């Protein structure tokens, strides 16, 4: 995997040498994280697939923005579309986790025809409806005060998630590492924007093979939303990972990567 900067949008990305004739996998990470969460998946898939990972705006090694409107979901999706257009990627399998699922939904609404298959990890189609969001929404109204605080647009770094094995949903050391790296501004603004979207009406329009994986004990996005997605997306498979939480990308690599291999394998003659 090689590192690059998409200079038109100051987005950091990683890719292997793309080869014709094999499927392309693109991964979108969650809020306050970065593509470093996908490093084990890069190693798993790079020899058999074209692989692209990247840092969302305001995250990891991508540029940061000052205002709340800069973290609206359509802008994340626009960055993504411009990146894959620049890389001349016309067809691919999209894999997203948590907040990244919302970015995926925004992309799917306009560009479903570019996708071969979809993988949703720990998804929710309307975060603003969950109980915790109803409590936090009034508090997030105070985030406008962040506009008056000092601001630096410089990219930050990647987190080594090996330091946080078996991470709980509310693992304080991991959360401090993530949020301090992303910055409170990007974290709170991204969260606030996520509470204002609802993609329920999009679900029955998704007509391509879709895999939904969710942790049984997810306390951030409860599993009921994933089950509802499975019912509404006609051509979908649902996998419940027992004794797993929201952080299944980190905690359940073998189960998640194995499910992805099984799901995408018909598109490739490669054997893992």
Brief rundown of the structure:
This protein is an alpha/beta fold. 35% of the residues lie in helices and 17% in strands.
Topology (elements, then pairings):
Elements: E1 2-6, E2 11-15, E3 24-28, H1 39-45, E4 50-54, H2 73-86, E5 92-97, H3 99-111, E6 115-121, H4 131-140, H5 172-182, H6 184-194, H7 200-203, E7 210-215, H8 223-232, E8 236-241, H9 248-251, H10 253-264
Parallel strand pairs: 3-4, 3-5, 5-6, 6-7, 7-8
Antiparallel strand pairs: 1-2, 2-4
Helix pairs in contact: 2-3
Share in β-strands: 15-25%
Distance between the termini: 18 Å
- Low-pLDDT stretches are none
Mean pLDDT equals: 93
Report helical residue fraction.
Answer: 25-40%
Outline the biggest β-sheet.
8 strands, mixed
Total number of strands: 8
Cα gyration radius (Å): 17 Å
Count of helical segments?
A: 10
Principal-axes shape call: globular
Structural class: alpha/beta
> Order of strands across the widest beta sheet?
1-2-4-3-5-6-7-8
> How would you spell out the order of helices and strands?
EEEHEHEHEHHHHEHEHH
């Amino acid at each position: 995997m090689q590192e690059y900067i998409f200079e038109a949008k100051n987005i950091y990305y990683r890719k292997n040498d793309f080869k014709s004739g094999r499927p392309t996998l693109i991964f979108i990470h969650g809020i306050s994280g970065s593509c470093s969460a996908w490093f084990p998946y890069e190693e798993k898939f790079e020899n058999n697939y074209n692989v692209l990972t990247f840092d969302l705006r305001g995250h990891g090694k991508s540029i940061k923005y000052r205002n709340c409107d800069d973290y609206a979901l359509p802008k994340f999706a626009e960055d993504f579309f411009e990146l894959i257009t620049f890389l001349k990627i016309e067809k691919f399998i999209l894999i997203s986790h948590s907040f990244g699922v919302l970015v995926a939904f925004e992309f799917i609404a306009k560009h479903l025809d570019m996708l071969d298959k979809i993988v949703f990890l720990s998804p929710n189609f309307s975060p603003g409806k969950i109980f915790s969001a109803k409590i936090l929404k009034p508090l997030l109204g105070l985030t406008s005060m962040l506009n008056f605080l000092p601001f630096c647009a410089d990219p930050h770094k990647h987190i080594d998630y090996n330091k946080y094995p078996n991470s709980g949903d509310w693992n304080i050391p991991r959360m401090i590492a993530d949020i301090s790296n992303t910055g409170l501004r990007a974290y709170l603004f991204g969260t606030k924007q996520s509470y204002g979207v609802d993609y329920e009406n999009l679900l029955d329009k998704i007509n391509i093979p879709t895999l939904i994986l969710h942790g049984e004990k997810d306390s951030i996005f409860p599993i009921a939303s994933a089950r509802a997605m499975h019912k509404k997306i006609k051509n979908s498979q649902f996998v419940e990972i027992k004794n797993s939480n929201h952080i299944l990308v980190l905690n359940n690599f073998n189960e998640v990567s194995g499910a992805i291999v099984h799901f995408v394998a018909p598109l490739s003659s490669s054997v893992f």
